[in-house]
Structures are given as structure tokens and as C-alpha cells.
Amino acid sequence: MAFRQTLAPYACDAARSRGRLFAVSPSPTRSEFQRDRDRIIHSTAFRRLAHKTQVFVPLDGDHFRTRLTHSIEVGQIARAIARALAVDEDLAEAVALAHDLGHTPFGHAGEEALETCMKPWGGFDHNAQALRVVTLLERRYADYDGLDLTWEALEGIVKHNGPLVAGDGAPRLRPVARYILEFDALCPLGLARFAGVEAQAAALADDIAYIGHDIDDGLRAGLFSLESIAAGAPFVAGLLEEIGAKHPGLERGRVFHELVRRVITRFVEDAIATSAARLDRFAPQSAEAVRGAERAMVALSDEMTAAEHDLKRFLFTHMYRHEKVMGVWARARDAISRLFPAFLETPGLMPPEWATLAAGRDAAGRAVVVADYIAGMTDRYALTEVKRLFGPAGG
């Protein structure tokens, strides 16, 4: 496919960004979306992703994915899709790199535990937490809290998976987190509309990346075999036949890699072709036209959507619900379920800056501070806090 050298009319244009909450002088060397990406990369929250679980607790092996390696992979795929669709690569990468900033320690197990703890006070949502990180919790700059990202980056972080509300304001899939609604009142993000093509590219890149690397991690951890995934996913069976024909007798470890690279490549190529066809058919002449469309512009074909569903079903059963993973998740849920009430009841158990934030607040206010503190923890730090508060047996 020939790549266009200039941005398409439907791309988000950094030179015409809706701006930031806090005005900054233009950079002579970087676009506004490049600055967004760089601010995310240099943030404390981004560095902490190196020690946050994707599926496995990193202590179980040094070669399994973390939130950081996942985010880097998502960024690479998002850039590839954005480049092929002639939209802004830097914005797509920025949204991709920021999409997991709100995740708790211990992956989905940690999020489930924190959601349960926060249920009396509105629950916990990792997308809303990512917005809190980039608008409030990062405390680096002299003039403001947060990273002061552009409107387009914030829109992408909040809406990369699609509109949050219907045209009448009713929630589409689940109630909208309180902080998103509060921020939207201050800085309207168009919650009933799609995000731009760049954010949509980041969202699909997320799905592609985690399917690819979870296949890789699951195979290398011995949670399932090549034979079982081939039986559960005809798409994979076809790729394995292709590998066997081209590389007969290839050692098993290399087969794993050849499979994963083909999975990612086929999904990316399909996403580009399908999305380009949709854009050609709809022919949006601005980013606003993309936002107002009735469906996403970045998508997979029906055939690859079916393959994606097969793989997700297989991974859910054979990886995410594997007894080895569930055992780790149970310990992770227990850790957060013990830390939260301890900090809520005695805020002084948290570091001084966090205890000060919680001081004088009612139970709801303290709960939000405690959730912010726990959500920012790495896996290792959370386990260390459990041992500090409850003794070696508590960890």
C-alpha cells in the first residue's frame, strides 16, 4: 500500500488544536501532539507501568509483559495504523501510551478489588483514573497539576473506546465515572461523539497488541499449547500450517514468535484495509465529521472480527481463568482488599503527602485519596505495604 505523505482532511491537526487548559508558548521544534507524547513518556505514572502487571505478576518471570511493554507495543501499532491512514502519528501514539496510566497494580485483579472497595463511593474506572493522572495527580510543573495535555489527547484518553453516552445523555454501556462528568463540565469532551481517527487507531491497537502478546506469554508460560489454541481458533490453525510449510521442523520457541508476528501483522493489515475503505466510503472532510459519524471509522473486517472473538474466548478460558493465574489474582485481590480499609480508617499509614491530602475530608473524600494512592502503586510496592502493615505472613 502506498503511504500518503500529507495528513488527510479528517486527521486531527496539531496546528489547529483546541488547545490546553493552561496556555503554553509554542515549541520551535515540536508539534503540540509531540509535546503531549513527550509529557506522557516523562511522567512518573508512565515509568511506574514498568512494575505493573499485565497478566502475570512480574516476580514470576522477567520476560512476561508489563503495562509498560504493553503500552510501547500499542504505541508502535497505533503509529503504523495512523501512518497508513494519513492521520497524526504523534497523537495516536500519545493516546496509546496514556491509555493504561490509570490501571491499578496486579492488572484486572487489582482493578476488580479496588472497584469493590470503592463501590460505596461511585466505584473505580481505569479510564477515569487515567484522566485523573494526566489532569490532577501528576505534580511536576510549577504552574499547574497534571500534564496539561491538549484537548485532543484528553478526548482520546476518555473516548478511545467510543462514545460514553447516547444523544440524550444516557450512559451507553455503563454509568460514566464521576470524575469524567466533573471534568467534562469544566472542559467539554463531547461524550456522545466518537473520538478522532487517531484515538480510534490507538483503541484497536490495544486489542491487537494484547491478543498477540497474551498468546506469546501464555505459550511461553505453558498455560496452553499450540495444539490447543489451533483447535480453538481456526485463524491460528491456518497460520501454523503456513509456518509449518515454510519452516518444517522449526524449534518450538521460534514457532511461537513466528505465530505471534503473523497474528499481529494480519490484524494490522486488515485494520488498515478495512478502515481505509470506511474512510473512503464515508469521505469525512474534517476530524469533526469523524466525531459525528454513526460508527467508528477504524475497525476490523467481519472475518477478522470473528477471529478476534475466537481468540478472546480461548484466552479467557485457557489463560485468564487458568488456575495458576487465578491463584495469583486471588492473592492480588486480597492485598488491595486489606490495604484499602486500613488506609481509609487510618490515613496516617500513608506517606505524609497522601495523609495530608486525606486530612479533614469526609469518608467519600478520603476514599478517593486512598484509591488514588493504591491505583498508583506498583505490584512490588503494594506487596511491600501489605508486609509493612500486616507482617511477613500478610504478604
Write the CATH architecture name of the largest domain: Orthogonal Bundle
The CATH H-level superfamily of the largest domain is: Hypothetical protein af1432
Strand content: under 5%
The largest sheet, given as strand count, sense and whether it forms a barrel, is: none
Radius of gyration computed on alpha carbons: 22 Å
Helix content: 55-70%
CATH class label of the largest domain: Mainly Alpha
* Low-pLDDT residue spans: none
Tell me the count of domains: 3
Global structural class: mainly alpha
Mean pLDDT level: 93
N-to-C CA distance: 53 Å
Figure out the total of helices: 18
Oligomer designation? single chain
For this structure, the CATH topology of the largest domain is Hypothetical protein af1432
Please give the number of β-strands: 0
Give the overall shape.
globular
Element pattern in H and E:
HHHHHHHHHHHHHHHHHH
